[in-house]
TrEMBL record:
Ranges of the WD repeats in the UniProt entry: 121-155, 164-207
Pfam families in alphabetical order: WD40
Location within or outside the cell: Cytoplasm
Keyword set, alphabetical order: Cytoplasm, Repeat, WD repeat
High-level lineage: Eukaryota, Metazoa, Ecdysozoa, Arthropoda, Hexapoda
Gene3D superfamilies reported for this sequence: YVTN repeat-like/Quinoprotein amine dehydrogenase
Organism of origin: Clastoptera arizonana (Arizona spittle bug)
Protein's name according to its UniProt entry: Uncharacterized protein
GO biological process, one term: oocyte axis specification
Entries under InterPro entries matching the protein: Methylosome_Comp_WDR77, WD40/YVTN_repeat-like_dom_sf, WD40_repeat_CS, WD40_repeat_dom_sf, WD40_rpt
Cellular component aspect of the GO annotation: methylosome
Keyword Manganese annotated: no
Primary localization class, coarse: cytoplasm
Amino acid sequence: MQFQPGFENDSSYKSTTVPFEVQKHLEFIDITEDGYMLLGSSNLSSRRCTGSVWYFLEAEEAPDKEKCLTGTDCKTSVSDGKFLDSKQKIIVGEDSGAVTVYTLTELEDDHSFHLVSESTRNDHDNTVLTIAVSSDKKQVASGGMDLCIKIWNTEDLLIKNNYQLAHCHHVTNLAFRPQDSNYTFASSSLDGTVLLWDSRQFEPATVLRDTPNEGLSALAWNSVDDNVLAVGSVIGNIDLIDLRTVSNVMESRPFNRAIHKLLYINSNSLAAVAESHEVKVVQHSSDKLNIVYNDERHNDFVRGLAWHPKMKCLFSCGWDKQVIKHNVFAN
């Protein structure tokens, strides 16, 4: 039985048997409009890399496994994951190349909750590095080390479009345009290009960036003006591209290491993490990007970022097994 809305207020619910531990290397987080958190963890230091995903009702309780609603082991280490709806379905990409959809399910006999694997596809030939979900939740894009991009139908996890050799190097990030028709998305790659795609077509629509000597590693659409796309590079640069002119409108270098993830938290504030222990937020005015927030509480590489819509704050996770809350606009 799938759970019904409002279960979090029902005193009869209880968590189920969960994996033995939350592994040290926290890879990603995602938070719904209601504040539920998805957390992905991996063990990258053993001979056999393992992974797991965890579901928390309260973001501030992560990564304490005793306070999670449920969790499940994955066959290999995990790389990215997203909610597919408000609380019930999630999709996870693994280092094996697998893409799996899980459904949060309640058992009738004891009211325990489980993440049940609904469908798994192994169509990628190498590690899945990035997953993006369209705004209507009907399409998922995945890409990774096999240089391919695949578009999936979320209802049955069947491939709608398969872009073989979409880039000449690893596909590092994918992002659907938030206010578009749910078909337009961008991709970045270590080959130095950012491409704009229409999933109804078989070739990229536009080359937005081409810097062969500077691999590109992260993307984020402006949440209000989706003509603006932020691009992060392996040397720590962040550039803002205006789709109307296909040109850089602003640039900055807040890190001296590869940018790993970018996230717009409002119309002019962009959170960023790199291959470092820092979490930074830059704001853009008419002509430049300024660092307005810098946090160094993590002790290892920061990997995941998510905005909490209810609490109006930023959460980060990293390889130090910490989930940290950031009150970026507290002052």
